[in-house]
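so i finally got all the pieces together for this one. its two components total, 440 residues if u count the protein bits. some of the lines might not be protein, just check the labels. i wanna see the whole assembly predicted at once instead of chain by chain like last time, that was a mess tbh
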Amino acid sequence: MKPAPFAYVRPASLDDALRLLSADGGDAMPIAGGQSLVPLLALRMSGAERLVDIGRLEALRQVAVTPSTVMIGAGITHAEIEDGRVADPANGLMRRIAGGIAYRAIRNQGTIGGSVALADPAADWPSCLIALGAVARIAGPGGERTMPVEHLIEGVFATALAPGELIVAFDIPRLAPSARVGFAKVARKTGAFAMSLAIVILDGAEARVVLGGAGTRPLVLAHTSAAVLAPNAADAALRDAIVRDLNAVDDLDAYARRLHTATVLRAITEMRAS
Amino acid sequence: MTTVSLTLNVNGADITTPVEPRETLADVLRERLTMTATHIGCEHGACGACSVEVDGKIVRSCLMLGVMAEGRGVVTLEGLNDDPIIAVLRRAFHEKHAVQCGFCTPGMLMMARDLLKNRHVTSERDVRDGMAGQICRCTGYAGIVRAILAAAEELRRTSAGAPASA
């Protein structure tokens, strides 16, 4: 065993969990699937006096479908999304992205809420949920609030979650059946974190292009999103727009710029062929 | 060190044991229950040597605390001596020279069984994608891939391991 000692508690309700996470300013951390936290504990890069296990809370595993949204509980696993056991608001895009996260043994345990709360800039869900315009439902000692995932994720492993707050669920707008999507990801090997990942969504008169793995958080590429709206935009025009977007990102070397450009173009090509 | 009492089911038997909360499920299996088929390689989720089944789902036992498995049903390689898929895989690993030092083999067998149980495996690509999370430090992948493909073929022929769904 490698982690330093800690106490462990598994509350029976969300209210109990929130109480244990905020109680007397104690040093407590939530654990759901544990697929990022347990390695961080093992490497002693993270630690707490007490782990609060929220992995079995039914309140975090709710799924609800409305005509305009799908709500997916924060405790839903990647594998449940991969297997189509919950509704996909994005015409199969989420299912496909889920199937490419790490390895099946990780996907069986890891949760969508945990991925967003960790906010790794190269992870799949932050980019995907930002591209889809998802809104997080957050519970904390002060009650409930909502926040778009785009604002929730602030930087490398940094979110706007206050101490004691938990993500409960995501309200994800449903794409129109006619919406077109493209997804491209470059990783050193199957299951590794992305070096670059791009998601392109064209839904009616709205386009959104999101790039992950560049910069400190997923980036909404404004120029590229606008360029994608032009039905017959030439490759040169798209490249131009991508370059303008990448110019706003610090610390990209020549290889990274080529890599991200290629990934975005691949996603656009796939979107157009869909 | 403060211990707590943990009750879980391992290979069909209910077991109660004292554990420290920081012990992983892999630690509990090996150190508390002396079940050493589950190997510990990296202890932080990179190598797959510790793969076991929890409630029918393949997981890495170094990425699950023992206390998180409270009340769950754990299946390790020790519990699969009569499993038809494992029997075919074991023979295929032997015949295709898929074992060098053998350290990764229990995890390879557990993961390969999950793959053959749940997916249609017909190509080398299917095997390499499905097994991508398992590391063999001898780099004996060619034999391992050949063995799993041969096992998939045999199971298809005998229909012993038909996937539940595509």
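Chain B has five helices and five strands.
Chain B has two domains: 4-76, 82-158.
anyway lmk what u think
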